[in-house]
Design goal:
The complex is a heterodimer of chains A (331) and B (287). Chain A has 331 residues and is mainly alpha-helical. Helices cover 76% and strands 1% of the residues of chain A. Chain A contains 15 helices and two strands. In chain A, helix 3 packs antiparallel against helix 4 (82-106) and helix 12 packs across helix 13. Chain A is globular. Residues 326-331 of chain A have low confidence and may be disordered. Chain B has eleven helices and two strands, in the order H-H-H-H-E-E-H-H-H-H-H-H-H. A two-stranded antiparallel sheet of chain B has the order 1-2. In chain B, strand 1 and strand 2 form a beta hairpin. In chain B, helix 2 (41-58) runs parallel beside helix 4 (94-116) and helix 10 (237-257) packs antiparallel against helix 11. The radius of gyration of chain B is 19 Å and the shape is globular. Classes of the chains: A mainly alpha (331), B mainly alpha (287). At the A-B interface, helix 4, helix 5, helix 12 and helix 14 of A face helix 4, helix 9 and helix 11 of B.
Chain lengths: 331, 287
Amino acid sequence: MTAARAAGAGLLAVLVLQPLIPLGGIRQYVLHVAIQIFIWSFIGSAWSLMGRFGLVSIGHGAFLGVGAYTTVLLWNFFGVTPWLGSLAAAAAAVLLAVVIGIPCFRFRVVGHYFALVTLALGEVIRLLIIAERDWTAGSLGLTLKAAGGDSVWAAQFADKQVFYYGSLAAFLAGLWIWRHVDRGMARAALEAIGEDETAAASVGIRVTRFKLGITVLSAGLTSVGGSLYAQYLTYVNPDTLSGIGVSLKIVFAVVLGGMYSLFGPLVGTALTTALSEGLRIAFGLRFLGMADTIYGLLLMIFIIFLPAGIYGSISDARARRRAAPAKGAIA
Amino acid sequence: MEPIFFLEAAINGILLGGVLALLALGLNLIFGVLDVVWVSYVDLVMLCMYAVYFAVSVYGWPIWAGALLALAAGALLGIAVHLLIISPILTSAPINQFLATGGLLFFLQSFATFLWTTDHRSVRLALPSWEVGGIFLPATRIIPFAISILAVVGLYLFLTRTYIGTAIRAVSQDRDAMALMGANPRHIYLVTSAVGGLMAGLAGTLLSFQYAAHPFFGGQFGPLTFMICVLGGLGNMVGAFVASFIMSEVIAMGGVIMSTEMGYVIAFVIFIVMMFVRPGGILARRE
């Protein structure tokens, strides 16, 4: 355990010191890729809070879109600082989660049906953003109004290093929350609910309350991820931030890594980011669509042959190897 | 606003509903029998639309030959998707099934972009348009509607009057019991996927009368199609048929009163609310 901890501390030290490494011309690019990985694994962790208990949402783009657009619109039209704006956005996402969650859990909308309701929600938010074109500029997307240079008030920084540390902090906070839920009472309750709702209710677990709690937490964090991403890119677009495409990409990354393990979302996001960046560099603009073709193909292959995810499969195998001699001893 | 606009929108809604019904029935058949959601069903339709486009507009085939090509392509694609993707994950968790067919969605969309770029390609057919009481009824909408209804009736007769159709319905009711009766579910699954693909081919042909083929066509109709299936009740053919017309009317009327996007928003909100009040589908009996 101490060895693992030392390795973790060492890795963290590398991550913290990484921006100081002189990388010359590619420094900005390395930072950019790292920021993308941190933000999307934070969002992936938020998704997996629900996903691991059988609450499979394929509409997290809704919360992402609410987070990003609320922050940007409040800043562009009312000059509200994104620090407050992202809180307002998270509140809006939480409200949305409550409005959808209460009837879903009261009426026992589960499995396929829950997935489809969330899918419809994601599409509703995407279409609303497009429909309100006077505010949001529709499908063209919206650019964050520039504050003119670095500004803490506007949360805009020319140097990627600031966003590097910001997204690293968010990512670590996401891990901490995930672990906190994993070790708390809520986990046992939610697992029982995931296995059998009726049985869970019969032993006194408040099914609706627990499910709603985890949904609200997941939605709020996803919204924060959306705000952070919008501040970083200074541009928002309904097709990249809400709707079925991005929702599926969040789920893909998490399932690829393994949704039952702490570092699953990180491993999955790092892999999908490396894959798409690698394919983008390899093909560039020459073969339009080739990168995503290979991406889709690999995803299908992974889902069919490694259903527990990459990190999940490795840790399963390790656990089995560790468990094997013990079983032998008992026999 | 003048009432004639509403009447026109209502008629357009009905005409759209016929084609949506065809899409929804094909997907619902697979949904009901295999208990797997083909997230990428409408992307198969998109490929069939390209087949019609290339046959008719590029190689100058007559439209019926293009339609036959699309039907064959649809059936083969249905079989291929079943054998390559669905059958290995038939017993996996629903999320993995969602994701595998979702991966197919990414794959087909980007592969189509790679092969044919994002240009919109439409089959230009010289067909007449009739005017009835100030409302224009273009043949490009009337003919697909009529053929859709015929196909829906045909599918109904196939499922109720033929031996294999009865077997398909039996599997959708209880797949374990059916296996005990000596039927081979694998065979039934394959036939169902082929028939579902055939429907996709027909839908592709009919849609290419009025819509241009482009790689992201699936995104336009995909989510709507499986919402209609769920709204009608999984495996419930009559329910899916009714739901198609409800959704198409909502979209058409919402489009006239507000905007196209708002029409879809209202349709999706109705879907969400219906999931709460009637999860078994609009025609399901209350338990």
